[in-house]
Design brief:
Elements: H1 4-32, H2 37-42, H3 48-58, H4 64-76, H5 91-126, H6 131-145, H7 148-162, H8 185-191, H9 195-232, H10 235-242, H11 247-276, H12 278-283, H13 289-298, H14 302-330
Helix pairs in contact: 1-14, 5-6, 5-9, 5-11, 5-14, 6-9, 7-9, 8-9, 9-11, 11-14, 13-14
Amino acid sequence: MSSLPAYIITRFLMVIPTVLILLTIVFLILRIIPGDPITAMVGQKVPEEVLERLRHEAGLDKPYHEQYIDYLKGVFTGDLGKSMIWGKRPVIAEIMDHFPATLELTIFGFVLSVMIGVATGSIAAFRRGSKVDSGMRIYSIVAYTLFIPWFGMLLQMLFGVYLKVLPIGGRITPGNTPDTVTGLYVLDSILTLNMNSLADAFAHLALPALTLGIVLSGAYTRLLRNNLIEVLSQDFIKAYRARGVRNRKVVFHAMKNAFIPVVTLMGLQFAILLAGAVLTESTFSWPGMGTFLIERIEYRDYTSVQGAIVFYAVFVALISLVVDVIYALLDPRIRY
């Protein structure tokens, strides 16, 4: 861990070519596919001279290489540009309007998936060979293969339509939004002591978070079970037990060692959740980044799509860095 600061700096520098590659690919794809943001916004029945004027104002009449260079200059100075549609707001402002919703859903879905996966995986490992173990293994396979929209609609039908105990869509009831502090409704409700908004936010989070939690928990169940069984069979665990070490301490050391590969999966899953919650957001009408990206891709809003990709790339890189540091803290043998 002595060279960890140097490793962190190196990882940050590695983000730059990754962002450039992603940005270049997205830039090319958006301009190769038919259509442009001006035509998508005003339609094709507008006179050609009006379309040309609007394209000139948006800089779309420039050669592609000039558009690319201009956008890169903005990115490296911290300017992700302005949206080409709907008021031409700064892209970073558009992202900040939608990202808190995705982050909140991601956090709760992630926490639920880890809690369910760790519980089922541990039970399966400590009851190895029993019917409980078989049941947990079947659960992991079924959960992993569930199709999110189908499972989400199933929960909507059960809890929202038949039982009528939970809302089936949206982020909060209109008129019940807490005062904005962070953009995370649960946290904002706590900070402003708005208990009605807090209960409402939890109610709206319940179904989408449970959908993500159950679907993603299957991978944790299987990975933790296999690693825990392997760790429990190692010599140092047998030595602990032979010396009369309390079972609670043995379990703690076994879990700590079994968790090393699980932490890696947790980082990957969190990044996947953050970037790929679009199916859940679409199913539950959740106003997050997934919904935002789909909408802007349909309207060919080049700067918004490019800005969202850059934002995701940097954020996922930071998550990977945090996971590496946690990995090293769990396993002292790792050196950077």
